[in-house]
Amino acid sequence: MARRASTSWIDGRLMVTVLEDFIPKSYQDFLEKNILSKTFPFYFSGATTDYAIEGNYMSPYAKEVPFLVHTFLSDRSQPTGYWPIIAPLYFNFCEKTGKNYTIVRCKANLYFQAPDFGKDNYYTPHVDYTSGNITTAIYYVIDSDGDTLFFDKDLRITERISPKKGSLVYFDRSVIHTGTPPVRSTHRCVINFNFALS
């Protein structure tokens, strides 16, 4: 059973909602085992943001690194054969929010340590989409370090969420955010969703 959601407020409006134990422990373990298996297909990506889709924000602390990605579904295309293992996350999200969403994009991201990052560095701040009634959600596949950061319009960090296996964070697509590489953990793995209201 999911714990009560924790929320953050900035300038009087809701910014981030965290749902701990978003799915049962057995399903959390199933996802970790399958997505981090030797046979799950991840692919190389040279940067953490898609400049063709996302709005990016310049910051002296931002750095880019390559990482691995598996795109389950993009721009309402046909999903990959691995979609069935994460489809329950979608249905669970609709049920818990009480809204009827369609999926615009869904991908698994696998990040590794970045020795050239200092303690103040992070990946490029961005919004996932620059228009539309879209909600972004991040599901944490494993416990790790490598916080998700949230910013105000002046790129001041307003919230840090540490990856906790089984938790899901969601927010409006206009919220500026980014990630940080793991330091103590060898890797960091998330599933990123973009939902549009039907």
Textual characterization of the structure:
The chain has 198 residues and is mostly beta strands. It has one domain (6-197): Sandwich (Jelly Rolls), CATH 2.60.120. It has two helices and 13 strands. It has helices at residues 25-35, 87-97, and strands at 6-10, 13-19, 43-45, 55-56, 67-74, 101-112, 126-127, 134-140, 148-151, 157-161, 168-172, 176-179, 187-197. The strands form three sheets. Strands 1-2-11-8-13-6-5-3 form an eight-stranded antiparallel sheet, with no helix packed on it. Strands 10-9-12 form a three-stranded antiparallel sheet, with no helix packed on it. A hairpin with a 5-residue loop joins strand 9 (148-151) and strand 10. The mean pLDDT is 89.
How are the elements arranged and paired?
Blueprint: E1 6-10, E2 13-19, H1 25-35, E3 43-45, E4 55-56, E5 67-74, H2 87-97, E6 101-112, E7 126-127, E8 134-140, E9 148-151, E10 157-161, E11 168-172, E12 176-179, E13 187-197
Antiparallel strand pairs: 1-2, 2-11, 3-5, 4-7, 5-6, 6-13, 8-11, 8-13, 9-10, 9-12
